[in-house]
Every structure is written in structure tokens, then in C-alpha cells.
Amino acid sequence: MDDQGTTVGRRTLLGGAAAASALTAAGFAGAPTFAAKPNRRTLTVLGTTDLHGNVYNWDYYRDAPYDDADGNDVGLAKIATLVEALRHKRGAKRTLLLDNGDTIQGTPLAYYYARIKPITDGAKHPMATAMNLMRFDASVVGNHEFNYGIPTLRAYEQQIRFPLLGANVHNWDDGRPALTPYVIRRVDLGFHRPVKIGILGLTTPGSAIWDKANVEGKLEFTGIVEQARLWVPVVRRAGADVVIVLSHSGMDLSSSYGDALPYPENTSERLAKVVPGIDMVLCGHTHVDIPERIVKNKRTDNKVLLTQPMRWGMRLAVADLEIERKGNRFEVVRRNARTLNANTVKADKRITKRLRKPHQKVIAYVNSVIGTAAEAMSAATSRYEDSAAMDFINLVQAQAVKAALAGTPDEALPVLSIAAPFNREAAIPAGDVSVRDVAGLYIFDNTLMAIKLTGAQVKDYLEKSVEYFKPVDGTGPFPPDDVTNAPTDAAPDGTPDYNYDIMGGLDAALTYDIDLGKEVGSRITGLAYDGQPLDDAGEYVIAINNYRQSGGGGFPHMADAPVVYNAQVEIRQLIIDWVTEQGEIDPASFFTTDWRLTYNGEPIQIQR
């Protein structure tokens, strides 16, 4: 069915020359790499992951085509061109198109249809429209599918014309599957009967923590490996000749939520090694491009193919499974995968034409002027020096919490706030300020909460935060990258900017030095509130986002900290509302330098 409800079937949109041109541009010959044999056929599996609301190759925060240092393009419209070219070359009946989750959150386009013109009120989600046009065969829920609450997820599920899987997502009350665990697709490869492809969906269980406010008491999440052990045999007994797992989980063992759950966050390779009966795993969640990894299952010695196509529609995974007929059964005997770059092709005109109106509506929304700024603010240096941009976020958060505490037993407590430098390119211009200017400061859909910590716990929290910095020898000057994004056991490739929290006070300043000449765990010096040493036993209210409060990043004391505010209001919207109501942002009224980097007490110089 097409988007208007008329039957279209699996037609090929690209002619032969156009398909060949698209694949040649992508550096892909198009034909299977396996030698032809009478009793063997090739199934081609195409995969996307972590699309995060990207349809067009467009950066709504910059109001310009997407661009990055590596020349990547984004969006389903470009992926659709590659998909149709491969369907033309390989045969549409011999291909499957699968998605690995984190689909309906991540861009202003996705936000607009969740909050401004919500799909729960009857609007059509642009991602559902695009994916229906592309004729996806199945998808799995990612952790970000729960960001807007279960009603939004269910509305999206009703709009798509392919199953939304999640075998390890259960109803809270009865423990039954809350989503379809698996689906079997019958693919005609030219054998005596169709080959039955079992597709099992599993998602990282951290949603129980990250979206606690949305899912607690409604949904529970269990381990990927544990549920695969239960469901893979079920899929095989249901007749599957080949089993593909959609695993919204990275390949290598790691976790961003420490010991808060007994299940690893990223466990796809372990899944392939320890659960027998799997032929292929489409991985995701970690936003990296891993074209091919082949591992052996420890119990069967069978090889399992893993592939992960980056994020945002930058890449399309292309996996070939050579299937051999052995009597009345089929077996995968050879396998390979690669990823194709979306920047090699033009956007599919069907997709861009159908989504043009929603796209233009969102552009108009994000460019609407809501206030002015007395002077420009940039987040470019926020990761290594105090900035007005971070102070502004902390101001808005702290004021919202302070107002909510009025009339409660905690109204007299000092209010502190944390903010992280999410977006190095964020900038508020002098003069007119638009929605997109403000939204660029806070690119995630986190909601505001408030907790209580003691002074000693505040110091512990800050010590964890400043693990972000690398040790140095001297006062520099140093290039920023020589100081920031330190690798840790939890983040071996470097601590991301969003795990560096900057803390500030509302009615009085919270001040501290970060001494990189000292050992990790002892770097916070001179910690003071209103000019006096922070009281270790005193109580402080901390304005914090829901991701951090629920354990994201593994910060200390989160599990036991009393929650004193949780209205489930998005921080980005609070900032937009603040500018709309106040009319002007004046950094001179709130910005002070409250923290600095030092080496044995002396200021560290950072190269500009």
C-alpha cells in the first residue's frame, strides 16, 4: 500500500541506468560477490539504524544542508535512492529492508510531530510516511522511541505498515510481550519453496532507566542475551530457515548506566557468540560505522555476520547471505557485508516531494523569532571554560525549579543546576533570536527534574564530571583536544561532551577550580557557595535532567537522591518559553566566571 492507501506492490523506482549510476557512485558493483551454484541463492539484507528523525539532508539548527568535517550526508531520502538501486540490481523479491530503531526522536522534524503538532492528535509522522514509502519489512524499538511517552510510540506503531518489534519489552502487570517479538518473512529466492526469514527484535534495556518517568509501572525491560536465548528457539520452531536479529545495541560490551541494571547496554557481539541459531545481527545504538564483523558462535562454531551502518541515514548496510538448499532445509553457507555512503547519491524525489510540506512547516517553526539577545553567546568553548551559554541553561533550569518549590518544605534550600555542553556549534546571535537558535543550545529531549544532595555529594558528583579532562603537565597553552574528552573504562574512545556537567548556583554563585595536576577523584578544589566553603552536611536542591537523574553516565548518588520536582517538562521548551516570556537575553545579568581549569593552582591556558 502507498501512503494514500492504494496498492503499489514492490515496484522498482529506478531504471537500469539510474540504478547502475547510483551504485557506481557509491563504489558498489551491485552484483552478489558469491559464485553462482545451482543449489545456492543470495539474499540481500539492507539495514538502517539510529535514523533519529532525519528525512532530508538538512540541519534545522543551521537552516542549511547538513554538513560535517567528514563530508557526510544524512536522511532517509538519500538512503531510499540506494535502496531502490539495490532492489533493481538484486531483485526486489530477493531483498529485505530492516531498521534498527531510534527512529522518531532527534531532529526538530521529529519533535514538531511529537509536541507541536503531535501524532497523538491525528498528524502523520514524517518518519512513518517515508518508511512506508520505502516499504520497510520490519523495525525494532530503540531506547529513544520511549522519549515522548507510550501514547506517542503507539500512535507511530499504528501509522507504520511494518511490524515494530521488541521481544525484551514486557507489560509491567502481566509480563507478556508489549510489542511483537518477531516476524517471519517468506522470500522467493527461486528454490522449490520460499525461504522463511525469522526477524527477532531486541532493544537495549537502559530505557528502564533513561525514560523511567515514561515507562515505570507500565513497561519492563530485560536483557538482550537472556531474551534471545528464549526467543531464537521459538523463531526456529516457527519455521524460520534463517534468523536475523535486530539488536538496538552496540557490538562491544559497555554500559553508560553502570550497575543500575544487571544487563549490559552494548552486547551484540556477545549475543552472536553465546546464543546459537543466529545467522546475522543488525546492530546500532552506538552511532559508529562497522561495515562487517564475523564471529563464531561458541556452541555451534557457526559463523555469524554483524553489521552496523553508522547513524542518521549516513550509511546503508548491505549484507549478502548465500543460502544453500540441503534437501528440504536451507543453510547460510557464506556471508559478507559492507556499508554504502549516502553522500554518493541524490535524494529520492518521491520521498522529498511527499515530505516537503512537513519539512517546510518545521523550517518555518524553527526560524520564528521569539526574542532578542543583548549580545552574542557561543557554546564553542564551553567544554573547557565557563561560558554565558551554559550559565543561561543553568539559569533557566534553576529558576523553574525554584518557582516549583515555592510553598514546599524545600523552598528555602539553595538551588544549584547542572548543564552539559551538548552542541559545540550552538550560538545565540546578538539581535533577533529564533526557536532554532535557542533549540541549538539544548539538542536533546530531556525533561527537567530536581533532586536533593548534600554538599559532600555535590563534590562527589563534580569529581565524576571532571573525569572528562585529561591529565596535563604544566599550564600550557594546550590545544583543547589535549585536555578534554579523556578516555575512561566506560568510554575508551573518549568521554563525550554530554557527560561533562557544569554546575552553577541561582541566588548565589557556586565556584570551584578543576586542578588537572591532581589525581582523578581529587581534582575539585576551592568548592564554595556564596563565597563560603560548601557545607558537606548541608542540603542543596539540584536542577538536573531526567537522563542524568535516572543513571545515565553513571554519576554517583543518583539512585538514592530524593526527587523534589518532576513535572516532565522538556528543558528545551523551558528555554524557548523563557525567551518568549522575557523577550530579551542579557548575559550581563547572569554570567559570571564560576569555574576554571588549573594546574597545581595556576590557571591553564587553552589555545584558541
From TrEMBL:
Gene Ontology, cellular component aspect: outer membrane-bounded periplasmic space
Sample GO molecular function, one term: hydrolase activity, acting on ester bonds
Pfam family, one: Metallophos
Domain of life, per lineage: Bacteria
Span of domain 5'-Nucleotidase C-terminal: 369-559
Record flagged with keyword Nucleotide-binding: yes
Annotated segments matching region Disordered: 474-495
A biological-process GO annotation: nucleotide catabolic process
Stored InterPro entries: 5'-Nucleotdase_C, 5'-Nucleotdase_C_sf, 5'-Nucleotdase_CS, 5_nucleotidase/apyrase, Calcineurin-like_PHP, Metallo-depent_PP-like, TAT_signal
Domain Calcineurin-like phosphoesterase positions: 44-288
Keyword list, A-Z: Hydrolase, Nucleotide-binding, Signal
Protein family membership: Belongs to the 5'-nucleotidase family.
Protein name: 5'-nucleotidase C-terminal domain-containing protein
Source organism (scientific name): Solicola gregarius
